[in-house]
Write a structure and sequence with these properties.
The protein is an alpha/beta fold. Helices cover 34% and strands 17% of the residues.
Amino acid sequence: MTHASLFSGIGGFDLAAEWMGWDNIFHCEWNPFGQKVLAHHFPNSKSYNDITKTNFTIHEGTIDVLSGGFPCQPYSSAGKRLGKADERHLFPHMLRCIKEVKPKWVIGENVRGLVSWNGGMVFNEVCDDLERQGYEVQTFLIPAAGVGARHQRQRIWFIANSKCSRLEYGSKNRNISKKETKTFTKRSSASKKFETNGSRFDKSWTINEKTESIICRGNDGFPYKLDSITFPKWRNESIKAYGNAVVPQVAYEIFKAIQSFEDMVNV
């Protein structure tokens, strides 16, 4: 399968795709440090920088899975929560890329705060925008602790498929509220399982109540060597990159389920 990423950072999605044996076709990242990391680890992928100035139509119909952790700062509880008034509200550009590329699958990731911002307005808009493009959308609240990390790092994940109407939960949860999201997450290990051909990632949203509060290097799922950089500027950049990165192990569980589904429907 083919994969491409937007807001690629240091390549969390791309790393997970590589673990899957998929072909990373392109990535898009404006940060110079992230660009260097991506160029080093994914030299065969086409590289773009500014998503607001990039036309992706050259890739139309060639990408199976398009992923993107669109900037979370506008919705993070650690920030000012300016939402759509924040210049970093870039989902509209991700949506434009989706329209241009027309991937089979879209995977989006953001902070948990997106669910509650302005009564869930942007959360619902993201789902509605994807559905208007012909995608069925399912959302999940998955903590990094669910794949063995030593901290919570809860993130909202959007999983959208352009042709599938047989996802176990369909699109009935597209207007899921903050309360419903919490309930869905807490019940998932006992009664909510996303199953495709026997493959499930219920373990991915089992919240580990014994997680430790101390954040150690490597907890975000990337190799330890990245934080051994001795140049102060790049060391600071690597720390920021860790904080902004998706956890590749979570993405990997999602990708495995997608691959299982594709194998099932293409038999």
